[in-house]
Amino acid sequence: MKDQGLYLNEFEHDNCGAGFICNLNGEKSNKIIHDALEILVKLEHRGAVSSDGRTGDGAGILIDIPHDFFSRVCKFDLPKPKEYAVGMVFMPKKNNQTLYCRTIFEEELKKQGLEILGWRKVPVDTSNLGKIASQTEPKIRQIFVGKNNQKLTDLQFNAKLFAARKIAEHTIAKSKISEHKYFYLSSFSTTTIIYKGLLIPEDIDRYYTDLNEPDLVTRLALVHQRFSTNTFPAWHLAQPFRYMCHNGEINTLRGNVSRMKAREELMNSDLFGDDIKKCSR
C-alpha cells in the first residue's frame, strides 16, 4: 500500500491468531478440516471485521493436497502424488488480463521444462463474501504442473516451480496491465495447498465449497486469522503463507528487506543457476 494521509507503510504492525491440528497416525479425513476451522472460529477475537460485518482481515487453511479428490474432479489425468504440483492462483478480474497472466506463467513453466497438466476453476459461493471483500475478489484457479518425464528430485522440481513463479511474478508486476496486483499464488507445492481469502473464519468453507466434499481429506491442517492493527487488508495478505504461518509483529520487515537487497548481488546457487538473478527484483 502506498503512503497516504497519515498512513506510512514503514510503521506497519500486525497481530494474529493461529492453530494447528493433525492425526498422529497419519490418517486422513475431512473432519480434520472442520475441526481446524472450528479452532479458527474460537480465535475470532484475534481477528478484525470490517464495517460490512462480513469482510475479515483475512483467514485461511493449509492442508495436504487431496489427490483422490483432484483425480475425481479434474478433467485431465494426474500422475502419482508428489509427481505433480498444485498452484492456488489469484487472477485479475478482467478476462484479457487473466489471459495475459496465464500466458506469462505458462511460458515460464515451459522454460523450466515442466508440463502444464491442466487448469481448474475453483468453485466458490460469492454469496458468502462481504461487500468490501467482493470489490477486490480475484478469479481463483488451480494449476496442475508435472515433471514432463524429467528425472527430478523433489528439491530440483520445487526449485523449478519456485523459479517459474518468481520470474512470472516479476514480469507481470512490471507490465502495464491495470490489475497486475491481483496475480498471486497462495500456494504452489507438491504436498500442500492453501485455501484463503478476505474472509471471516465462519465463511471459509462456505465460500470454498471444495472443503465440504467428503473425499477432500487431509492428515493435518494449519489455520490462521489475520489481525492488522494498522495495515490494509488484502486477499493476498491473508494467511497462511506458502511455507509458513506467522503470528506476531512485523516491525523488522524494512530492516530484513534492506539486508536481503544488500546481499542480492552476491547471490549464487548451483541449484538455480542463472535463474537466481531473475528471481530477485
Characterization of this structure:
Helices cover 29% and strands 19% of the residues. The two termini are 18 Å apart. It has one domain: Glutamine Phosphoribosylpyrophosphate, subunit 1, domain 1, CATH 3.60.20.10. With 281 residues, the protein is of the alpha+beta class. The protein is globular.
End-to-end Cα distance? 18 Å
Briefly, what CATH class?
Answer: Alpha Beta
Q: How many discrete domains?
A: 1
Globally, the shape reads globular
Alpha-carbon Rg, integer: 19 Å
Give the beta-strand count.
8
Order of helices and strands: EHEHEHEHEHEEHEHH
Secondary structure layout:
Blueprint lengths: L16 E6 L8 H12 L16 E6 L2 H7 L10 E8 L3 H17 L3 E7 L9 H5 L3 E8 L7 H20 L10 E6 L2 E6 L6 H4 L12 E6 L27 H11 L11 H5 L2
Helix pairs in contact: 3-5
Keywords:
281 residues, alpha+beta, Glutamine Phosphoribosylpyrophosphate, subunit 1, domain 1, four-stranded antiparallel beta sheet, 29% helix
Task: Summarize the structure in short.
The protein is α+β, with helices and mostly antiparallel strands and 281 residues long.
